[in-house]
Amino acid sequence: MSTHSRTLIIALFFLILGLPGRGLAVEFAVPNNGSPYRNLGELETGQILHLPTGVVVTPDQMMHTISNSRVIYVGETHDNLEAHRVQLEVIRDLHRRYPGKVVVGMEMFRRSAQGQLDLWHEGKLTPRQFRKLFRENWGMGIQLYKPIFDFLEANRIPLIGLKSSEVTEQRLREGGLHKPGLPDIDESDPYHRAYSMALFGGHDSHSTEGFHPYQMLLLWEESMAETVAEFLGDDRYPDHKMVVLAGGFHVQYGYGIPKRAFRRVPHSYSIVLPTVTDIPDNLKNREMKFESVGIPLYSGDFAWKLDYVVPPPMRIRLGVYLEDRDDGLHVIRVMPNSNAERMGIRKDDLIQKLNGSRVVDTEELSSRLQKHDFGETVRVHLMRNQREVEVEGVLQKPPESPHE
Question: What is the pTM (predicted TM-score) of this model?
Answer without folding.
Answer: 0.84
